Amino acid sequence: MSSVRTLKQIPRYLAVILMAMTLVVLPGLASPAFADEWPDECSPGSEGTALNQTPWHVQRMNLDLAHPHSRGTFPDGTPVKVAVLDSGVAMDHPAFGGRVIEGADGHSSDAHHGGCDSDGHGTVVAGIIAGGSEEGVRYTGIAPEAEIIAYRTLPAAELVISESDRPLVSLAIEESIDLAVAAGADVINISAGSMHTPGLEAAVERALASDVVIVAAVGNESEFLDQAPSDVPAYPAMYDGVIAVGAIDGSGAWNAMSNYGSAVEIVAPGIDISGPAPGGAGYIHGVNGTSFATPQVSGTVALMRAKFPEMTVDEIRERLFATADPPGGPDNNFYGWGIVNTYRALTDMDPTPLTGDEEGNAVQPQEQTVEQWPRVVDPLRETKMAAAFTLIGSVALIIVVVVLRKLVPVGRSRGWAPGTRKNLDE
């Protein structure tokens, strides 16, 4: 009898399995509201693992050549202040050596959780900018003596933010920009993107007018920004005056997940990146995206501000672009002015772009036509394959359920005796 009861429950079990598979493989179908994911308190994320070798991106930035010229402190010994608008920063991680100031939450002026990171995104970003104080670990940030001001503008970086929730994110970034300017930030790093709003654009303009450099990620949707819809989450990177950053991999090649177009101004390492973990110890490895290319540039700008304190925002931008390593061809829709070169940005006596007119005036490389773009990698390939396999599996399970709903009553009616042509036809 127990076998009979089990068989009677098979269709119900299969239905539950089907629902579970769909929710696991396609979480976007049940994305929670952004506001519901914003906790009143912050619980630190997990500790990381040991770092046994110097990450490739640290080596790629040639910091051993750059740091004798600047480490992120002004001539009077005060540190350059870099505001990080992100998921928060684990301020107690030894990589920072106590150089993290806790800012307010972008969503609540009464809450100060910027020094806590439940996700890890912001801590890695801050580590790329100003890590390097942990003794015995072969990891250093671009500006290891700079100071971080941490603002929590995102509750969790992995959260899929719906279109209807983007105004809330834009508002958090907008308010945090103003807070950072008021706190005396010299550089603002925004490794996130949201939609355009008049308030966000105005906050950017106020910061630039206050001589604060803003560096922002162009995003990872693999969108051609010149033809993208107005709500593409690529702001504030697309605003005039903001240094817009794309990502390259370890070979120096543009990464296909990056958004591209005339808004892209410079690129930096953003694939297979390591950085401090949010739990206050250890390191995270193998993270990817323009989010992690952006702090490579912000750190470089911090060194430049320390080395050349008299330079304005526009002069910093011009020098940064003029000293970048240009791409091997007319690829400025992907590379902008080229790959950031921290050492040249600090040492070139009279930098001029490696691409220019006969008089040495700055001229961006010739743009490619749409037909020439090497769009050979689909960044959503794995997601699409997972969805396809889920659909196929779902159809197969439905067929099994239908068949069993037919066979189980027949088997029960004949006492589960071996089937014959006669009793199957009854």
From TrEMBL:
<protein>
    <submittedName>
        <fullName>S8 family serine peptidase</fullName>
    </submittedName>
</protein>
<dbReference type="InterPro" id="IPR036852">
    <property type="entry name" value="Peptidase_S8/S53_dom_sf"/>
</dbReference>
<keyword id="KW-0472">Membrane</keyword>
<keyword id="KW-0645">Protease</keyword>
<feature type="signal peptide">
    <location>
        <begin position="1"/>
        <end position="35"/>
    </location>
</feature>
<keyword id="KW-0732">Signal</keyword>
<dbReference type="InterPro" id="IPR023828">
    <property type="entry name" value="Peptidase_S8_Ser-AS"/>
</dbReference>
<keyword id="KW-1133">Transmembrane helix</keyword>
<feature type="transmembrane region" description="Helical">
    <location>
        <begin position="385"/>
        <end position="404"/>
    </location>
</feature>
<keyword id="KW-0378">Hydrolase</keyword>
<dbReference type="Pfam" id="PF00082">
    <property type="entry name" value="Peptidase_S8"/>
</dbReference>
<keyword id="KW-0720">Serine protease</keyword>
<feature type="active site" description="Charge relay system">
    <location>
        <position position="121"/>
    </location>
</feature>
<dbReference type="InterPro" id="IPR022398">
    <property type="entry name" value="Peptidase_S8_His-AS"/>
</dbReference>
<dbReference type="InterPro" id="IPR015500">
    <property type="entry name" value="Peptidase_S8_subtilisin-rel"/>
</dbReference>
<feature type="active site" description="Charge relay system">
    <location>
        <position position="86"/>
    </location>
</feature>
<dbReference type="InterPro" id="IPR023827">
    <property type="entry name" value="Peptidase_S8_Asp-AS"/>
</dbReference>
<keyword id="KW-0812">Transmembrane</keyword>
<comment type="similarity">
    <text>Belongs to the peptidase S8 family.</text>
</comment>
<dbReference type="InterPro" id="IPR050131">
    <property type="entry name" value="Peptidase_S8_subtilisin-like"/>
</dbReference>
<feature type="domain" description="Peptidase S8/S53">
    <location>
        <begin position="78"/>
        <end position="338"/>
    </location>
</feature>
<dbReference type="GO" id="GO:0006508">
    <property type="term" value="P:proteolysis"/>
</dbReference>
<dbReference type="GO" id="GO:0004252">
    <property type="term" value="F:serine-type endopeptidase activity"/>
</dbReference>
<dbReference type="InterPro" id="IPR000209">
    <property type="entry name" value="Peptidase_S8/S53_dom"/>
</dbReference>
<feature type="active site" description="Charge relay system">
    <location>
        <position position="291"/>
    </location>
</feature>
